[in-house]
Amino acid sequence: MRTPEAGPMKALDDLLARRIYLGVTGLSRAGKTVFVTSLIHNLLRADASAEDSPLRGFDCFDEGRLIGAMLRHDANATVPEFPYRKAMQAITGESPQWPEPTRGISRIRIDLRYRRTDAGLTGQAATRLGLRDATLQLEIVDYPGEWLVDLPLLGTDFETWSAAMIEQARQGTRADLSREWLAFVQDRKPDAEHDEDWAEQASALYADYLRACSEARLRNLQPGRFLHPADLRGASVLRFCPLPDLRGKAAPGSIHAAFRDKFRDYQEKVVRTFYRQHFAGLDRQIVLVDALSALNDGQEAFDDQSEALAAILQSFRHGRNSLLGWLMGRRISKVLFAATKADHVIRGDRLHLENLTRRMLHVLDENNAIKTSAETHVQAIASVRATRDTRRADTGREILVGRRPEDSHELPLEPGAIPLDFPPDWAALDYRFWDFQPHPDPSWKHSGFPTLRLPEVLNLLIGDDLT
Ligand SMILES: Nc1nc2c(ncn2[C@@H]2O[C@H](COP(=O)(O)OP(=O)(O)O)[C@@H](O)[C@H]2O)c(=O)[nH]1
Ligand SMILES: [Mg+2]
């Protein structure tokens, strides 16, 4: 990578460097870790002479202006670094595997050195000064979508929230999973005297219930930190839960009063703090949506994920009356919703996946509040393509070739069709989700990962910053 010599030009170059904060979010298993790993690896491996580079389609690369990329380690970071090396080892190891799930927030910075286009004033001025090349400092922040599901907590109070959560806990699959926790909290009157042991047991049972819901593929779960506590594991701010039968004001010293106070602490110290410390600094956001697993999980899980998404979407409404109206800082100017794992469906269905996701977001985004707040895009992508497209010899139908965990080698497979509309017609649905495994392909390590539409993602998110 060519950088200007030390001295005044270097200082000027640094001064002109742009820093962009890119948020990567999505509910757990949506594909954040694989996405960030692939993005970084493919940028680091960018090779202008490679005809079949996985970056083909990324304008800055195609125009021959991407000079090189470099990872930067921030010695003073207060947030864990994204485990890039570890994830790479898993995917490109001798028996390739998907990376281990990560929880919590992490960051990584990659600097892109590129040649300016001559367009624009900065470009012209910089060129005249002999600074034809520039640096984009891309700071990637990977954080759980579950934390965004918490935003609506700011617009409610403990009593209203409790009533809604108790009501929800009595519906569908949740009714079974909540039995033990509900029996425990119903056993004591909320105006009984607060007792720390009882509080600890109640909140532990509630956390167990949320985890059981998560295992049953339900996604609309609050508070998000009960599932992904990160640095708050064991912290006393998580020692509360919804309470049944709250009537009237909380008596001082009661369970009701203690839980209400914890709830307020959670609103302030957890939810608001996250938005202020991390979210407020983001310029761009990609939200990964695993619509395919949700389809496979059936109607209840799919609807539940849609509700979680509706809660997540509220974070991207910047209107004055939004819950984030208080938020100081930058504002996200571009949001890309990416339907992940598009390599799980046949070629002809990828557009359907994109349209289904677009329809879903449109239905969830009441009054187009997001569209009017930020530039919004939808795309179906695969960060690391684990299947190949082929056709059946007999019928000519499109099928996939891939390897599931139980297979010793690749097989031709037909995943079934993707519904065209939202909500899907469940009676007609024949789609099946398989957990396709990455290939043992040595070229991946050196040439980058094959993807579906990752270059377009780069164009949409940072294309304008590389001019
Ligand atoms: N075939 C395929 N599977 C993927 C892709 N991205 C993610 N996955 C699958 O989704 C799982 C969860 O991905 P991960 O990135 O760990 O999700 P996270 O929890 O959002 O960080 C992985 O273990 C893979 O099984 C992709 O691009 N293609
Ligand atoms: Mg992860």
UniProtKB/TrEMBL annotation:
Native organism: Roseospira navarrensis
Name of this chain's protein: YcjX family protein
InterPro entries on file: YcjX-like
